[in-house]
């Protein structure tokens, strides 16, 4: 028998909880429990820090992207606009523009030459004057005039 350190009543040696006052008697156990709780709290804390960092990071990327689109919208054309404009220029040089089959814009090479000049290199499949389908490689050189408008500088095609 031993005495409960909380209420001084006599209890079994193996008792882990006092039957008189209901206190936990195994100090080692309760200590471990506290440690576990602390560790759990720590874990939650690190996840919280990570989550906050992630939120800040995402916010930073989003705001960064937003600023780029709002401030440079009229200065830098997007690749799809460049690619489609080049295709329109090339169509004028085709004998049968209606038969023209352009590949997806991902198949176009777009080079920014500086001074708002862009060179688009790609190919088009279209019918020649004999009605045969030919693949034509083309290079379009053009200058960006702002607001999604371009000025054609040069079109080069070779079969
Ligand atoms: Zn007790």
* CATH topology group of the largest domain: Nuclear Transport Factor 2, Chain: A
Global morphology:
rod-shaped
The side-by-side strand order for the widest beta sheet comes to 3-4-5-6
Are any ligands bound, and if so which?
zinc ion
Q: What is the CATH domain class of the largest domain?
A: Alpha Beta
Number of domains: 2
Mean pLDDT: 83
Q: Terminal Cα separation, in Å?
A: 103 Å
Number of helices: 2
Catalogue the unreliable spans: none
Radius of gyration: 37 Å
According to DSSP, the number of beta strands is: 6
Largest sheet: 4 strands, antiparallel
Query: Which architecture name of the largest domain does CATH use?
Result: Roll
Portion in helices: 25-40%
H/E order of the elements?
Answer: EEHHEEEE
Q: Hey, roughly how much beta strand do the residues contain?
A: 25-35%
Structural class: alpha+beta
Structure description:
The protein has helices at residues 27-72, 79-93, and strands at 2-3, 10-11, 109-114, 117-127, 133-146, 149-158. The mean pLDDT is 83. The chain folds into two domains: 2-72, no CATH class; 79-157, Roll (Nuclear Transport Factor 2, Chain: A), CATH 3.10.450. Helix content is 38%, strand content 28%. The strands form two sheets. Strands 3-4-5-6 form a four-stranded antiparallel sheet, with helices on one face. A two-stranded antiparallel sheet has the order 1-2. The chain is an alpha+beta fold. β3 (109-114) and β4 form a beta hairpin. The structure holds zinc ion (ZN). Zinc ion is lined by residues 4, 6-7, 9, 18, 20-21, 23.
List the helices and strands and how they pair.
Blueprint: E1 2-3, E2 10-11, H1 27-72, H2 79-93, E3 109-114, E4 117-127, E5 133-146, E6 149-158
Antiparallel strand pairs: 1-2, 3-4, 4-5, 5-6
The chain binds zinc ion.
